[in-house]
Amino acid sequence: MSEEQSETGTGWPQPAVPGRPTGPDPRPGAPDSDEMSPLSPQGEPPGRQSPPDEPDEPDAGDAVTVDLSSVTPPAGAEQTPPAGSAAVARRFTSAGAMIALLLGLLGFTLVVQLRTTSTDPTSAATRQEDLVRIFSDLDSREKRLRQDIEALEESQRQLRSGEQGRQAALQEATRRADELGILAGTLPARGPGLSVRFEAGSKPISAYRVLDAVQELRGAGAEAMQISGGDGAAVRIIASTYFLDGSGGDLVVDGRRLSGPFTITVIGDPTTMATALKIPGGVAASVAGDGGNVIVEDREVADVSALHAPVKLEHARPVS
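Request: output the structure for the sequence above.
Response:
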């Protein structure tokens, strides 16, 4: 028997167990391999007896069989992966290769971009003075554009104000045209005023007395007037209206014959016009001296509806 067989005490060499060191334990204070041997009686802990059903220690002539399938390899030992994990490993390997390829392409693109930017001949060849000039031109262009924007906004404001001005001018022109139409007798008018009735006495009402009354009313602020006869015919009184004595006490107003009594309807301040007619020595006193009578009545709403044909000017022209 060899020396190794004598040390183990079995007479036969021990089989090598995978993952178990064959030599003595190098750790300090570790027990001797003979003491920890599972086949040695000294390796049993104190007070523990072998179970009665355990087989006796084999003799030197018997073969020892060790079941290695129950032995768990240590963490550092190589393990053969199962057959099903090979496909998973291949998939992970393909994905890793694709990711590595994409990262490589990305890095290559960044490197090319940086190299192109750093080696741009236009930027590299531009001097500092040229860059300053370019910035100055851009600044000037920005100022010009801002000025253009301000000019356009001012034009917009002027157009809007011009539109408002045109509207105001149109309204003013319309109002002025209405006033001129009333004064010219081409538009009807309505407002507070007087009704002045002339009744003849021993003498007929002359054209002179009627014209005197019209002049007094105009001086008192009359704005629109018409004269009507006893038959209801009416004539609008304007600046060019004339009065003539007709036969039988009639009046001819602008070529139209009117019979008495005559009534003048006038729009204006009633109090002022009534005072002008009743002043001493005025129209009312003169008609009363001829035996006639002048009846003045206030009207809250006096209607001047008679119209005069537009006058065609032959000689007068506006001064431009």
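Confidence is low (pLDDT under 50) at residues 1-12, 15-21, 33-71.
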